[in-house]
Design goal:
heterodimer, A: Rossmann fold, Arc Repressor Mutant, subunit A, 5-stranded parallel sheet, two-stranded antiparallel sheet, 9 helices, about 45% helix, elongated, B: alpha+beta, Beta-Lactamase, Heat Shock Protein 90, 6-stranded antiparallel sheet, 8 helices
Chain lengths: ~210, ~325
């Protein structure tokens, strides 16, 4: 029997995941909680084999931070990171935290039970890419990684000089990226751009 | 001999003429202030600013300093150098009544073995005006940037509010429609199957409302309930004494500290009970978190967890003290605002 911890801030989703897993005789849900900061405590005594972890949880606590802590102290626990957001950096960050698999909740290309089974067999199940959203006139996959890094820094309120320092480039290079991004998306200003990427959840500055 | 004197006079005259035609002010003086050579411009500037020409260069320098512009005090970053310790150069700005701005500089020179003080004046009216305009523009840009930063910060929250509002509107619409249907069915004395349909529709909308509320706004899981639940999973009891903060920020900070204390107490001291005493002290909350685990008098190493907690608390104006005289106790002072 595989002992599961569900970390998900939406009560409806928690209930759906619990029902889906209880349909299988292999899984038993030990707890379903809404705050990722409590997940590390729940895993401490070795009672949990698998964590289904949402990235954005209650009280703005990050599932990514919680996953990194769990993997540090309890590396035997398998973690499936879940998200419904197309935020471009989640995949990379989840890999960095040592997660075993990643599941886009609403994409529907793989079921919850299937990803749990494959993960528990030792497979690493990862989507090829993040879901694509429309940002102004451009598709999100038309923006380069560097351009997305610049947009993230803009969304966090940094100036061009500060962004340049963060990315180890010159302020002129930052301006060049911004000019290209605005050209691709057709927005007139960076505020318009940031408002759209945040609304479409391509970038979540808090996570 | 007459030729030599004539040549010397001609040379003096040429020097005098050339420094008088120099557009800036120039004066050379001995270290006691005795003027050796001063051009017309320097005398003219000195007269316009102090009321007399140069009789003693050092005294004139001190008088000019007393009428210098307020934003050129030594050590202040003004965009114009004030004191350069490498060349013993000192400078300040003075403004004339017609709006012209002059920069005065003093520098020590060595002529053979004799020290000579060189005083210079340079017209920087345009430069000064550009600098002031740049400062104004920078201040304006800073204000705009602050507004933009605030705007970006609000975008995330606004999106969340928008979703909550949309859910509320949907529930409100469903409620209104059902109320109208109920009124019509009752007024027209509807049949039993109609009443049954209506009843089912009411059940449905109430269920939706509960789900929406528990999803976003009024979660049935409280922070205390969830923490007690996970603490129970690792065999540790959590007891709260006193009223917990009603404000969101102090509450989140308190729980962050409780989680850290709980993890450490179970991991390092084998505790099975954690007690949190909370006191409302008017403007702030005082909380003490202690456990019943093994006592150790060894100094506490503030690693990643405790260090991060301290940083988070201090960022929000709260304070953390660690007392290990009788087991490890975390003492918190958390402001309400």
């Amino acid at each position: 029997m595989i002992h599961v911890l569900i970390v998900e801030d939406s009560a409806i989703s928690r209930e759906i995941f619990e029902r889906t897993l209880s349909a299988s005789q292999d899984y038993v849900v030990i707890a379903a909680i809404e705050n990722a900061a409590n997940a590390e405590i729940a895993c401490m005594r070795g009672r949990i084999d698998l964590v289904l972890m949402d990235v954005c949880t209650a009280d703005d606590e990050s599932g990514l931070v919680a996953a990194a802590k769990i993997k540090k102290h309890c590396p035997q626990v398998k973690i499936i990171m879940m998200s419904s957001m197309p935020e471009h950096s989640f995949l990379q960050k989840a890999r960095g935290c040592g997660c075993d698999s990643f599941w886009y909740k609403e994409q529907g290309d793989i079921g919850l039970l299937e990803i749990c089974d494959r993960t528990m067999k030792g497979n690493f199940v990862w989507p090829d890419r993040t879901p694509v959203v429309q940002i102004g006139l451009a598709r999100s996959d038309e923006l380069t990684t560097r351009e997305l890094e610049v947009i993230r820094a803009l969304a966090q309120g940094y100036r061009y000089e500060e962004i340049a320092e963060q990315l180890y480039v010159s302020p002129n290079t930052v301006k060049y990226h911004v000019k290209n991004i605005l050209q691709k998306t057709g927005f007139r200003s960076t505020v318009q751009l940031v408002a759209d990427v945040v609304e479409k959840r391509l970038i979540l500055p808090r996570y | 001999m007459f030729d030599a004197i004539r040549r010397r006079l001609t040379l003096n005259h040429a020097i005098r003429e050339s420094i008088d035609t120099y557009p800036g002010g120039l004066c050379f003086a001995a270290s006691d202030g005795r003027p050796i050579l001063a051009n017309k411009k320097m005398n003219d500037l000195c007269a316009r600013l102090t009321g007399h020409t140069i009789t003693n260069a050092e005294r004139a320098w001190q008088e000019l300093r007393s009428v210098k512009l307020a934003d050129t005090s030594e050590g202040e970053q003004t965009g114009f150098s004030t004191v350069n310790p490498n060349t013993a150069q000192e400078s300040f700005l003075c403004s004339l009544t017609d709006g012209e701005v002059w920069q005065f500089r003093r520098q020590s020179l060595m002529l053979g073995r004799a020290p000579i003080i060189q005083y210079e004046a340079e017209d920087i009216t345009d430069l000064y005006r550009y600098r002031n305009r740049l400062r104004e523009n920078n201040a304006q840009a800073e204000g705009l940037h602050e507004r933009q930063r605030e705007l970006l910060h609000n975008i995330v929250q606004n999106n969340l509010d928008k979703e909550i509002l949309e859910a509320k509107i949907r529930i409100h619409d469903d409620f209104g429609r059902l109320l109208l249907m109920s009124r019509n069915t009752l007024a027209e004395r509807g049949t039993a199957p109609e009443m049954g349909k209506l009843f089912a529709a009411w059940e449905n909308v109430i269920c939706n409302m509960e789900n929406a509320a528990s999803t976003r706004v009024d979660s049935r899981t409280t922070p205390e309930k969830e923490l007690v639940q996970v603490a129970g999973m690792i065999g540790c009891q959590v007891r709260f004494n006193g009223r917990q903060p009603s404000e969101r920020k102090p509450l989140l900070l308190l729980y962050a500290a409780v989680r850290e204390a709980l993890t450490n107490a179970v991991r390092h001291a084998g505790a099975d009970c954690l007690t949190i005493d909370i006191r409302d002290e008017g403007n702030y909350y005082h909380a003490e978190i202690r456990n019943n685990g093994q006592k150790s008098r060894a100094p506490i190493q503030e690693g990643g967890g405790l260090g991060n907690l301290r940083r988070r608390l201090e960022q929000e104006g709260a304070q953390l003290q660690i007392d290990n005289s009788d087991g490890v106790t975390l003492i918190l002072t958390i402001p309400k605002e």
